[in-house]
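Customer escalation, tier 2.

The customer says the design service returned an amino acid string that "doesn't look like it belongs to this structure." They asked us to rerun it and document both sides in this ticket. The original structure tokens are below, unchanged.
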């Protein structure tokens, strides 16, 4: 298994190569202007042809106004030109320098003919002149079933518009069917195979946008491999749709996002494993109804040559020579080690003070495990150095003035989901997040990935403010505790749940610990652990305490903070406000019938330190008329004898009189007084 540092080195080389082959902003702007202009011009051509058809039908109709009104609805739904769609590199975002083939598909209601092709070609320059002052050359090629448009600027661009119709594919599928009906085709029908290829390209573009655009590093690797196909003739047969299928399958089957260098290595591993060789699994075409191998056009010699080249490229990458595969100069190392020289004057001489050996000098000692651990820790820290510029700031620097729009806000109040969008070069990017700031950051990451710039995705996700995360977690925990209180126990005060997020110790208004202050007012309270959630790095504890029949909960990162939160909630609820005076009175244990219970209750209070001031000199714990703690014959079951009477002069200071009982010799029932 290769180390993370070697993959980082591959990432640097791949991204540097990608920056050299990615089109410049001026080229992308020229492409966008040309494609948008031609699309609008074709829309104007479609409107012009519909007006011609309506006028010709109106002149030729002689049956009256009713038939014209009946046919008006059909005319609106039967446009000669149905629409124009982008296909190929423009739709997939795979344009690179010196390979910028622009393609559009013009859908027709009926099967396209040479007459229709010439008609569109003649009117298209007129409509282009109405939209822009730039000059374009418009030509039509019958054998290609397309119109070729060339720009006359310094940057030469070529746009191909292919005419096709869905009827051609439907007819091809029904040829062998029972319900096939012989239909007369126009004599000047365009090439059927070219029209079918245009329909297939339209399906490929839709599939790519749905499956490959969302994969991290997939578009970048495809641009790198397309450049490889242009440079190396061995790879040329794989260029296009087969290469896109292989990259999507290789990168999409990984269980985690891959960097650019690791994704390129994974594609090379798939090709080097022999999937192209005869007898291999092949590559299934997902855009065809019948089982089709996308590699059927490759010969045996081409398959073996591509496999051999992929194996050689994989070996070079494994030995840290990926720059040879990319045909670029090796990049310098990120970290340069500075070596220190020790002179004899420093080591010898009484007047010189011995300097400490720097950390780098100990790297050669491989026997010391502590030095190895420190060295590995430094490598990890260096590889995870945080870039101060996140994706949003980087995108704003590349494309200043972008307008982010809030599309929707969904989800409950405690866990909202915001969806933001931004328009870059005519393409709209959308992303969601728990806050507007996070959603904008996700949108910026998508835009940078589409443009091929390094995003620092992991760093950006860690740079999200901790306040948003803590607020979201706090809302979720509060909502879950409230719902459990409502369904589980109706006596729990749901408003008493308190979670303190402040730093430092939790104190009351008087500056005391809430647990200690509540213990002074109500002794013997028990705190119970209700729930424990979160991972090892982010634990959340919920503690509960019952005071005077009411239950209070508190949450915190540990049990101590959760107990303090619960105690603080109880203090604020019971001992603050108008009912504070009544609740602050000491609770006396309820008395039951019998002198025994009265005596034992007093004894319990004395033992707990709460009844010390209740006994005065000459006073008794029991009733005033009693001469002893236990009256003879009453309250002394099972042979308990009465205690001796107290002295007449009372008790000395700091002395308490407790009842004395004689235990019987036979078993006694399980009574508990304490």
């Amino acid at each position: 298994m290769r180390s993370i540092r070697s993959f980082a080195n591959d990432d640097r080389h791949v991204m540097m190569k990608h920056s050299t082959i990615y089109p410049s902003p001026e080229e992308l702007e020229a492409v966008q202007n040309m494609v948008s202009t031609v699309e609008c011009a074709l829309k104007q051509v479609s409107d012009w042809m519909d007006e011609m058809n309506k006028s010709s039908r109106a002149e030729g109709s002689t049956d009256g106004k009713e038939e014209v009104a009946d046919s008006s609805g059909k005319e609106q739904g039967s446009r000669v030109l149905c629409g124009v769609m982008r296909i190929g590199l423009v739709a997939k975002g795979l344009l690179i320098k010196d390979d910028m083939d622009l393609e559009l598909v013009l859908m027709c209601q009926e099967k396209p003919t040479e007459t229709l092709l010439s008609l569109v070609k003649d009117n298209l320059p007129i409509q282009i002149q109405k939209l822009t002052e730039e000059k374009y050359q418009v030509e039509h090629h019958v054998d290609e079933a397309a119109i070729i448009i060339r720009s006359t600027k310094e940057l030469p661009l070529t746009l191909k518009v292919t005419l096709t119709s869905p009827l051609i594919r439907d007819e091809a599928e029904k040829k062998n069917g029972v319900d096939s009906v012989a239909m007369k085709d126009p004599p000047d029908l365009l090439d059927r195979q070219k029209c079918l290829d245009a329909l297939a390209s339209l399906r490929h573009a839709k599939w790519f946008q749905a499956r490959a655009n969302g994969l991290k590093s997939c578009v970048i690797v495809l641009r790198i491999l397309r450049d490889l196909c242009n440079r190396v003739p061995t790879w040329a047969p794989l260029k296009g749709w087969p290469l896109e299928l292989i990259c999507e399958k290789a990168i999409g089957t990984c269980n985690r996002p891959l960097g650019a260098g690791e994704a390129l290595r994974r594609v090379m591993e798939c090709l080097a494993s022999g999937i192209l060789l005869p007898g291999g699994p092949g590559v299934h075409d997902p855009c065809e109804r019948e089982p089709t191998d996308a590699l059927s056009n490759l010969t045996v010699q081409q398959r073996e040559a591509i496999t051999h080249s992929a194996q050689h490229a994989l070996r070079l990458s494994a030995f840290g020579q990926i720059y040879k595969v990319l045909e670029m100069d090796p990049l310098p190392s990120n970290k340069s080690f500075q070596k220190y020289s020790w002179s004899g004057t420093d080591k010898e001489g009484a007047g010189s003070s011995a300097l400490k050996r720097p950390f780098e000098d100990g790297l050669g000692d491989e026997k010391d495990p502590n030095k190895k651990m420190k060295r590995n820790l430094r490598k990890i820290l260096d590889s995870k150095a945080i870039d101060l510029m996140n994706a949003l700031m980087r995108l704003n620097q590349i494309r200043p003035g972008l307008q982010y729009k809030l599309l929707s806000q969904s989800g409950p109040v405690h866990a909202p989901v915001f969806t933001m969008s931004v328009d870059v070069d005519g393409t709209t990017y959308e992303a969601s997040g728990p806050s507007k700031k996070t959603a904008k950051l996700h949108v910026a990451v998508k835009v940078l990935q589409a443009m091929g710039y390094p995003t620092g995705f992991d760093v950006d996700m860690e740079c999200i403010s901790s306040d948003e995360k803590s607020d979201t977690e706090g809302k979720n925990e509060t909502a879950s505790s409230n719902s459990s209180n409502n369904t589980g126990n109706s006596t729990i005060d749901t408003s008493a749940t308190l979670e303190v997020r402040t730093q430092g110790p939790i104190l009351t208004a008087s500056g005391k610990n809430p647990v200690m202050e509540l213990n002074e007012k109500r002794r013997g309270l028990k705190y119970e652990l209700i729930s424990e959630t979160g991972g090892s790095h982010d634990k959340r504890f919920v503690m509960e305490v019952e005071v005077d029949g009411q239950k209070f909960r508190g949450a915190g990162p540990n049990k101590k903070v959760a107990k303090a939160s619960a105690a603080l909630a109880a203090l604020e609820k019971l001992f603050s406000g108008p009912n504070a005076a009544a609740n602050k009175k000491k609770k006396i244990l309820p008395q039951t019938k019998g002198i025994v219970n009265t005596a034992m209750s007093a004894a319990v209070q004395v033992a707990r330190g709460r009844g010390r001031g209740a006994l005065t000199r000459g006073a008794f714990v029991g009733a005033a008329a009693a001469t002893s703690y236990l009256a003879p014959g009453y309250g002394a079951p099972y042979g308990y004898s009465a205690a001796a009477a107290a002295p007449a002069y009372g008790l000395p200071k700091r002395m308490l009189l407790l009842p004395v009982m004689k235990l019987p010799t036979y078993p006694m029932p399980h009574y508990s007084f304490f």
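Tier 2 assessment: The sequence is consistent with the input. The chain has a mean pLDDT of 75. DSSP finds 22 helices and twelve strands in the chain. Sent an explanation to the customer and offered a walkthrough call.
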